[in-house]
């Protein structure tokens, strides 16, 4: 498919929006020969996940993607054949007018947030005629064949398997990060929002019979970690030991290295959307910290995913899994929930691999988008 695409990303308060759109843009260029122009309104959030990016550049090419600074002062451009507004962001009025002026209006998609809620299947692909005569279509990522699927590069799982089969590859990667876990230590990645139950989980890990080594990328959970450790501040490279628990702060890494970090760990606690999907492809036991919404509206979204994810598990393992995820997201004691989940570790490991394989049998989001747009152009 030879086409030009514009993808608009408005960074809200985390890295999920830019994380998703940057992965999508790269995959479209690398696998579908699409010319992509990615518009980002906050390049400072983009630089940490893309080494070599320039936060001040109005225009730059990275990994084959043209990255444009989406500034309040809009410079007129010719819209592409496909226009994606990620996560309901509002496109510049002048750009929308330029879309109308084309002889053949572009395919206009609103790429929605990921959800497992049942109503998503009925809304995926629905058109939304606009007052200006253009038509916008709702495109939903998801976990079933009636959605757009999940972002997954064609070689992602083979690369994961090759990495995991090489002890040297894992050791070399961790060594480059300054990580040297004990031979029998449980390696855990903790990437979360602020959470009042962080202390109860850390205390449980500190008293666990098995040594635990927790890797914490710099981010919003650092303040809570410092408070539990009783230190004033934490920086990348800091290592603290409490009982059987070793805690280590990591710098922010590129997306490719973040994948390797997930593959290297035995358990991954992640947040938001982008890291949530990548943790599923890592095929390891995991814990999702869902983005908090007013009046706990996020709980319904959490339960919808758990209804799918727990299928195939015995009643006992389901109860342990539900207890752990609900404790983390509903401010319940994490110590008891963690110990209950650890009793079924082998089952959770096997289930994570089965889930990843099941999802990989479905559509990947980039391919689904290209197929949909190819039929619409």
From TrEMBL:
<dbReference type="InterPro" id="IPR016633">
    <property type="entry name" value="EarP"/>
</dbReference>
<keyword id="KW-0328">Glycosyltransferase</keyword>
<comment type="similarity">
    <text>Belongs to the glycosyltransferase 104 family.</text>
</comment>
<comment type="function">
    <text>Protein-arginine rhamnosyltransferase that catalyzes the transfer of a single rhamnose to elongation factor P (EF-P) on 'Lys-32', a modification required for EF-P-dependent rescue of polyproline stalled ribosomes.</text>
</comment>
<dbReference type="Pfam" id="PF10093">
    <property type="entry name" value="EarP"/>
</dbReference>
<keyword id="KW-0808">Transferase</keyword>
<protein>
    <recommendedName>
        <fullName>Protein-arginine rhamnosyltransferase</fullName>
    </recommendedName>
</protein>
């Amino acid at each position: 498919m030879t086409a030009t695409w514009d993808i608009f990303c408005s960074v809200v308060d985390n890295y999920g929006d830019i994380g998703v759109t940057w992965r999508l843009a790269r995959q479209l260029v690398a696998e579908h020969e699409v010319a992509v122009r990615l518009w980002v309104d906050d390049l400072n959030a983009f630089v940490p996940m893309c080494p070599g990016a320039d936060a001040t550049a109005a225009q730059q090419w990275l990994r084959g993607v043209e990255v444009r600074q989406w500034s309040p002062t809009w410079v007129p451009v010719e819209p592409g054949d496909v226009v994606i507004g990620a996560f309901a962001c509002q496109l510049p009025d002048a750009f929308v007018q330029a879309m109308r002026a084309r002889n053949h209006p572009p395919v206009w998609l609103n790429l929605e947030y990921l959800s497992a809620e049942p109503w998503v299947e009925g809304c995926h692909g629905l058109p939304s005629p606009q007052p200006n005569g253009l038509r916008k279509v709702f495109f939903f990522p998801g976990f079933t064949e009636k959605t757009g699927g999940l972002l997954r590069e064609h070689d992602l799982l083979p690369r994961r398997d090759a990495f995991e089969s090489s002890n040297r590859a894992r050791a070399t990667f961790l060594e480059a990060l300054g990580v040297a876990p004990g031979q029998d230590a449980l390696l855990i990645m903790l990437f979360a929002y602020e959470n009042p139950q962080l202390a109860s989980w850390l205390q449980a890990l500190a008293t666990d019979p098995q040594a635990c080594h927790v890797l914490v990328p710099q981010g919003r959970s650092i303040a809570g970690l410092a408070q539990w450790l009783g230190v004033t501040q934490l920086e990348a490279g800091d290592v603290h030991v409490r009982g059987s628990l070793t805690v280590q702060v990591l710098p922010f890494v590129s997306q490719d290295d973040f994948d390797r970090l997930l593959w290297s760990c035995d358990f991954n606690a992640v947040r938001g959307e982008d890291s949530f999907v990548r943790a599923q492809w890592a095929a390891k036991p995991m814990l999702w910290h869902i983005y908090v919404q007013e009046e706990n509206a996020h709980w319904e979204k959490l339960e919808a995913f758990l209804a799918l994810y727990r299928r195939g598990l015995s009643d006992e393992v389901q109860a342990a899994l539900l207890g752990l995820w609900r404790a983390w997201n509903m401010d319940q004691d994490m110590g008891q929930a963690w110990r209950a989940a650890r009793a079924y570790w082998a089952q959770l490991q096997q289930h994570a691999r089965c889930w990843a394989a099941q999802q990989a049998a479905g559509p990947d989001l980039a391919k689904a988008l290209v197929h949909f747009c190819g039929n619409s152009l």
